[in-house]
Design goal:
This protein is of the alpha+beta class. The protein contains 3 helices and 3 strands.
Length: about 60
Amino acid sequence: MTIEAAPQKPGASIPQLAQEYGLSETLLYGLANQDRLPGARRLGKRIVIHRLTFERWLSEGTGQ
């Protein structure tokens, strides 16, 4: 019997990503509010981040 991990959802909250990657929530919220966080979308009051876009940006390390 094998147990498969649940697939990750394509979107994540800032607190989730901050915890997973060891980043500051304040930093991520600041970037999102300045429209400088790739993959960030506002849904009402929430900010949802597209994981693949965020991970690509993080791995490229361009700071843009």
